[in-house]
Amino acid sequence: MLRNIISKEYTELLAEDRLRWSAVAVYLLFAVALFTGYDYYAKTHRQHQEAQDASYRQWLDQGEKKPHSAAHYGFYAYKPVPLLSVIDKGMDDYLGNAVWLEAHKQNDVRHRAAVDSPDLSRFGSLTVGFIWQYILPLVIILLTFDSISKERESGTLRMLLSTRVSGRQLVLGKALAIAKAVFLLLFLPTFLLSATVMWLAGGNDAFAVNLPNLGFMAVFYLLFLAIFLALGVTVSMQVRQSGLALVLLLGIWTFGAFFVPRMSGGFARSLYQTPSAFVFTEQVSFEKGQGVNGHDPADKANEELKVRTLKEYGVDSLSQLPVNFAAILLQAGENKDWKIFDKHYGSLFQTFRAQDRLMDALDVLSPILTMRNISRALAGTDLDKHLDFANHAEQSRRSMQKTINDHFREHGVGDNPEANDFKADQELWNEIPSFRYTMPAVGEMLRNQAMNILILLAWLAGVSIFMWQKSLNLKP
Amino acid sequence: MFTHITRYDWLLLKSNRTLLFSFLLLLFFVGFALWNGAAHVRFQEQTAQAIQETEAANYGKIFQDVKEIEQGKTYAGVYWLDPTTPFAIGYSKGSRYPVLPNAPLSLISFGQSDLMPYYHQVTMNKKQALYHGEEIENPSILYNGNFDLGFVIIFLLPLLIMALTYNIVSSEKEQGTLALLLSADTDFRRIILDKYIFRFLLFNATFVIVIALGLLIARVNLAQTAGSLLYLFLVTLLYTAFWFGLSFLVNSYGKNSGYNAAILVGSWLVFALLIPALLNVSATALHPLPSRMLQITKSRDVSDEVTKAGSKKLDQYYNDHPELVPKGKKVDYNDFALTYLQTQMEVDKAIKPIEAGFTAQREKQQQFISYYRFFSPAIFTQQALNAVAGTGQDRYSEFERQVDSFYADFQEYFRQKVFRQEKMTSTDFAQIPSFKYQAPESDLFSLPNVLNLLVLAVFSCLFVFLGLNQAKRISLALA
Q1: Three-class SS of residue A78?
Q2: B296 contacts in A (CB within 8 Å)?
C-alpha cells in the first residue's frame, strides 16, 4: 500500500508546476554558484601556493646576512585554500590569508578578502552550500505545506481515511514521495556535479583526501533535508489551512536563516568583548617593553642573564664565551615574548570561542544554522581551522627563530662576540623548512562539531517522532 | 469613505491582535537594532579617544625628552630610539593616528564600519604597512552581519508588511465575504486600496515615532540631523511603499493566501538576497582585483633588489636630489635610517602600479554596482542608509585617500630630515604634519540619491496601477 501511495504522489509531483519551477530556479542558481566556487578555488589556491613558494625562494636566495637580519626578514605563511571551498566557502571571505613570520612579533593573519570586495558582498554570497542550506529547505516547504492540508480542504482526506489506508501510511507515503523527488531531482544531481567539479579542480590526490569530508557532508545534508521534510508535513497536518501552514513554515525559515544569526552576533559582541586592535597592540608592546627584549643592553634583566651565562660557562668576560651572547639574549627575548603572545592571543582566541559557543547555542533555534556550522567545518572554512592555521604558523615562526638564534649562538663566536659581525649563509637558510599547513583529519573535525551534530540529530528525532505521533491519529 | 473603511479596518486589526503583535515586534526590532548600533558606535568612539590620548601623550613625552637633551642631559638608550633622530620619531615614537570620526547618525547602519579600518598608524614605514591595519572582530560575527536599523528596514519591514497584508483580498475570498464586498455599492477596488493605504500610513507613522523615540533615547541630536533624518524617513516611506504596492499587486490576482505568501516571500528572496548576490558575483568576475599575495611577493623582491644594490642606489638618489645633500658634512652611508628609508621609497614606488590597480578595479566594481543598483530596491536602499549613517564604501574610500595624502606629507617631512642627516630639535615638533579628516561637502539630496527615491516612487505607483487594473477581473465567479 505504502508503495502505491508513494508512486501515486511522486507521479503527481512530477506533473506539478511548483516542482518544475523550483528545479529551474535551483539549477540556475546552482550553475552560478558552482562556477564561482570553482573559479574561487582555482584562482586563490594557485595564488596562495605560488606566493608561498615565492616567499620561500626569496628566503633561500637572501644571500649572506647576519642571522638576526634574516630573522627580521623571515617569510610569509599563506593559508592554503581547502578544496571543499568549491562547495562551501563558509567564512573564508572574512578570514585572513597571509601572516608574516618575523623576529619578535606574532603577527595577525591578515588580508581578509571581504575588505577588498564590493560592499554588496555583505548581502551574502552565492555558494553551493547556500543552495543546500537555504534554498532546498525552501523548496521542501513549498512542496510539503499543503501535502495533507489540501486533502483536508478538498474533503478527500475523509474519503482516504475511510479506506484501508491508515493515517500513518498516508503521511509517510507523501513524505517519502517528496523525499524521493527532492533527492533524485535536486540533491543527488547537484551533489554529483559538485563532486565532479571538485575532482576537476583538485585532481586525484586532493580529491581523495577530501572524499571522507565530502561523504560526511552528504550524510548530514540528507539528515538536514529530512528535518525540513518532516517539519513541513507535520505543519501541514496540524494547521488546517494551507495558507496559514505556508506562512508558518516560511516564518520558521526566515526566522532561522536571517533573524537569529544577526541577533546572536549582537549578543555575543556585547557579552564577550574583544579589545580594539589598537588597545591590543599597545598592551602587547607595553608588556614587551618590560624586561629582556633582546635588543636593549641597558636592561637590568640582561645584566642578570649575562652573569648567569658567564657563571654557566665558568668564564669572566663575554669575549671568553665559547658561544655568542647576543644570540642568547635574542632567544631569551623570544622566550619572554612568547609568553606575552600566548597570554594575549590566547585570551583573544578564547573570547572568539566563547562568542562562537554562544552563537552556536542560539543556532539551536534553526537547523539551517546548525547545518551551516557543520558544513563549513567539514569544508575547512570555519573559524576553528583558521585559528588552527594561525597557531601552526606561530609555532613555525618560533622554531624558525630558535633555529636561527641557535645557529648564531654556536657560530657567531670570535674575538669580539659583541660586534656580532658573523654572517650566516645558505646552510642556515636551508635548515628552516618552508611552511606547510595541513588541515586536521575528518575525525577531529567531527569531534569539534559533536555538539552541532547532536543538535541536528535531536532536531531530526524531535520532528520525526512528532510527525509519527500525529500521523497515528490523523483526523479529517 | 476612506475614514469609514479605515475605522472598520482598525477595529478588525485591533480585534485579531495582528496590530498589537506587529507593533511589539517592530518595537523590539528597532530597540534591539539601535541598542546594537549604539554599542558599536560607543566602542569605536572609545577607541578613537584612546588613540588620540595616546598620540598626545607620546608627543608630549618625546618633546620633553628632546628638550632635556637640548638642555644638556645625555641620552643613555639605544641609538634607534634616540628621540633626537628623525628615524626614531618617524618610525615609532612619533606615529600619527589618523582617525575617521563617526557621523552623527552612524548608529543606524553598521555598513562597512565593522570591516573597514577607521584608524591607521602612520609612520615612515612602507605604505603597505598601512593596509595591514584591521580591526579585531570575530569573523563569525562579521560573516553573520549585523542587526542594525538598516537590517530592520531592508529585510524585516518587508516581511512584516507581508504578514500584515498577504491575505487582504484572499481572506475575504476564503471567508466567503468576497461576494458581499463585490456586490456592495462601493467599488471593491476602492475598499481594498483604502485598506492598503490605511495600513501603509499606520505602519509608517508607528515606525517614525518609534525611531524618533529610539534616537532620542540614544541621545542623537534630532534637530542637528534633521536633513539626514528626513532623507532616512523618505527612503523608508518609499521602500515600504514598494512592498505594500507589490503585496497589493499580488493580492489583486485574487489567488489564495498560500499562493500570495509564496510569491511575496519569493520576491523578497530575489530582491534582498539573490539579485545582490548575483550582482556581486558579476562585479567581481568582470573587474577582478589584483592579488594581495602578489603584492607581498613583489614588494619583497624590490626590497631585496635595493638592499643588494647597496650605496649605488643611494648615490644616484643624492645626484637626483642635490637639495637633500647634507650641508657642511659628508654623507654617512652606514646610517641605518638612510638605507632603510631608501629601500622603502623604492618599494613604495614599485608597489604603486599594483596599488593603483586595486583602486581602479574597486572603482569599476562600485560603478558597475551603482549602474545596476535599480535591479533591486534592497541594494540602493542599503546604500542610501549607509550614506545617511556615513558608513558606506564611499566614505571609507575618501578616508583612505586622505590618509594616503597625509602619509605622503608625513614621509616627505621626515625624508628631508633623514637625507640631510639632521637632528630633531624641540622647535621641529610643531611642524610635524598632523591629520584631520576633512568631510567632503555631502548632499543627501544629490541627483543619484533623489533618483533612488524616484525609482521607488515610480515602482510603487506602477504596482498600484497594475493592481487596480488586475483587480477589475476579480468577479463574483471567482468568489
Answers
A1: strand
A2: 51, 55, 76, 98
Which secondary structure element, helix H or strand E, spans residue B239, and what is its range? helix B226-251
Secondary structure class of B225 (helix, strand, coil): coil
Residues A24-33 pLDDT 10s: 999 999 999 9
Taking the alpha carbons of A144, A146, A150, A153 in that order, is the dihedral positive or negative? Answer: positive
Of the partner residues A51, A243, A275, the one whose CB lies closest to the CB of residue B257: A243
- Rounded to an integer, the average pLDDT of B455-459 is 94
B278 to A262: CB separation less than 8 angstroms, yes or no: no
Got the DSSP string for B17-76? THHHHHHHHHHHHHHHHHHHHHHHHHHHHHHHHHHHHHHHHHHHHHHHHHHHHHTTPPP-
CA B184, B187, B188, B192 torsion: positive or negative? negative
DSSP state of B122: B
pLDDT digits (tens, 9 = 90+) for B344-374: 888 888 888 888 888 899 899 999 998 999 9
If you measure CA to CA, which chain A residue comes closest to B43?
A276
Is B296:A76 a contact under the CB 8 Å cutoff?
yes
Per-residue pLDDT tens digits for A285-326: 888 877 544 455 446 777 888 888 888 888 888 778 888 888
pTM for the structure as a whole: 0.91
Nearest-by-Cβ selection for B142 from A62, A94, A254: A94
Q: Identify the burial level of A472 via C-beta atoms within 10 angstroms of its C-beta, where 0-12 means exposed, 13-18 middle and 19 or more buried.
A: exposed
Q: Which DSSP string do the residues of A362-390 spell out, in sequence order?
A: HGGG-HHHHHHHHHHHHHT-SHHHHHHHH
User: CB under 8 Å to A100, separation ≥6 — which residues?
Assistant: A74, A75, A76, A107
- Tell me the three cell numbers of residue B9: 479596518
Q: What is the DSSP letter of A441?
A: P
* Cα torsion angle, B136, B138, B141, B147, sign: negative
Identity of the residue numbered B174 = E
Does the pLDDT value for residue A130 go beyond 80? yes
- Span B53-76, mean pLDDT? 88
Beta partners for residue A100, in sequence order: A76
* Cα-based angle A197, A199, A202 (whole degrees, multiple of 5): 105
Average confidence score pLDDT of chain B: 86
* % of chain A at pLDDT higher than 90: 59
Which ipTM score applies to this complex? 0.91
Region A394-399: mean pLDDT is 94
Q: Considering only CB atoms, which chain A residues are within 8 Å of B278?
A: 32, 126
Q: Given this model, what pLDDT does residue B126 score?
A: 66
CB A251 within 8 A of CB B178: no
| A344 close contact with B: CB closer than 8 A | no
Q: B446: Cβ–Cβ under 8 A, 6 or more apart, which residues?
A: none
- Show Cβ contacts of residue A43 under 8 Å, excluding neighbours closer than 6 positions: none
Identify whether the C-beta of residue A84 lies closer than 8 Å to the C-beta of residue A378: yes
Give the sign of the dihedral formed by CA A200, CA A206, CA A208, CA A211: negative
Rounded CA gap, A101 and A76, in Å? 6
Q: How many helices (H) and strands (E) does chain B have?
A: 18, 0
CA–CA gap between residue B429 and residue B424 (Å, rounded): 8
Higher pLDDT among residues B229 and A411, named by residue: B229
Does the pLDDT of residue B130 top 90, yes or no? no
For residues A236 and A142, give the distance between their C-alpha atoms in angstroms, rounded to a whole number.
Answer: 11
Across the interface, which of A258, A266, A270 has its CB nearest the CB of B146? A266
Would you state the cell numbers that stand for residue B463, as one nine-digit string? 504596482
Given an 8 Å threshold on Cβ–Cβ distance, is B143 in contact with A91? Answer: yes
- How far apart CA B126 and CA B124 sit, in angstroms, is 6
Q: How far apart are CA B138 and CA B145, in angstroms?
A: 11
Contact B261, A102 (CB under 8 A): no
Report whether A404 contacts A70 (CB < 8 A): yes
Indicate the residue of A115, A123, A264 with minimum beta-carbon distance to B276. Answer: A123
